[in-house]
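Reply to dn_fold:

You asked what the input looked like. This is it:
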Amino acid sequence: MPEVFTELWFIQLATVAYVIGITALVLLERRRPSAALAWLLALIFLPLLGLCLYFLLGRAGVRRRRRLRARRSVNPTEVTRGLLPLETPLEELDQPLRGLVALALNSSAAPLRRADSVDLLADPAQAFAAMEAAIERAARQIHIASYIWRDDDTGRRWIDLLCERARAGVEVRLLYDEFGCLGTPRELFDRLTAAGGQVLTFGAVRLRYRPLMINFRNHRKIVIVDGDLGFTGGLNVGDEYLGRGLGARPWSDLQVRITGDAVLGLQAIFLEDWLAAHSDDHAENPAFARQLADLLARPPAHSCGPMLQIVPSGPDLPFIDAIAAQFTAAIASAQDRCWIATPYFVPDEPLTLALKTAALRGCDLRLLVPLARNNDSGLVSLAAASYYDELLAAGCRIYEYLPGMLHAKYLLVDDRVAAIGSANMDVRSFYLNYEVTALFYDRRLTLDLAEVFTRELARALEVRPEARRQLSLPRRLGEGFARLLSPLL
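and this is what came back:
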């Protein structure tokens, strides 16, 4: 009997020590309270699985990137911050535009610039055709960053285009996220390297001599041609984004084409990512130094079109949640309407409060998301639905897109602000992924985006409070469980 008591005492002591140890470990990382609590619950009640996930998805890789960023001799975003800024003083802008511009400038070093032109490409086929035409006409340089690149007809066609341009002497740089391209054979990208292009991967997935980066993905979608033509939005490279291939379904997405001075913001972000994916001393590489010198020597073009800021966010940046802050502030500034389209809706507490407050103030607040059966992430769809009741009670209107997958990521506020980019309205995009969003302060563009939203809304079904009250108990439990996990999604 004494031996039994001794064993129980040892087990209890070990359990207490484990709980204290992992609690201290999680608290010292200064996570958001909801994320810290979710990790603590997983680590305490599922210790073996929780520990495996914690070390697999931990922040060690990000801490390493922060140290490398701090030691880096060149920071392209900071270096180019003073280039081609809008000549209009900030004080001459009306509120709330002045506050939104200052927020982006102070949180992410995103200067206010003008573009020559901005075009919305709301049809994926049209968007792919525009990007491919730009690649074919490239004379000096092509820079592409993509989260997903499929080995299918579209992915191979793009590699063929890039190989042809590389062989013609055009500088071609391709950056892809390793986690997003797990199913893509490396031989596809080797073809571009053999043709004279440069290819780098972002984020280690395989076991190497450094921490894994599975949880921190480069979700940006950027195409830059000759330094003054840029694209960004929600489109990756693959047949599925055209509604083709195995398991094809209609696909709704949005890409934006920008020309002029403002493209410099996309270029600086791409170069930041290129540095992060390369060795730390790459900033001293003569070719890269020449690239930065070319940017600094760029003559002012004095674009006269729409005003915009290119805002990045990422877990190793000084202000991690720059895009989350920008979205929340924009929604809080809405007077008449705020319309949002997002495929993945898992808001944090500040965003949820901003949405409910705007609706309670009488703002026309509408949210467009995919129908649950069309969403490619069932767990995220369940988590999103768990927020519907409180938003509907506040006066928000929620619509589910019927034809297929809604993958567009944008919002518009009144007739003066529009945001288009790679960031979803979820905690992953806000705090874990590397994202980019273009913030436009232009009435014509905002009205054009409102037309796109209205067209998509005509093919959506509105979520009614009475339908929500008829949900089964298993469905509500599923939504509650998914919501509990939402800080980790």
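Residues 56 and 188 are 28 Å apart (CA to CA).
Hope that clears it up.
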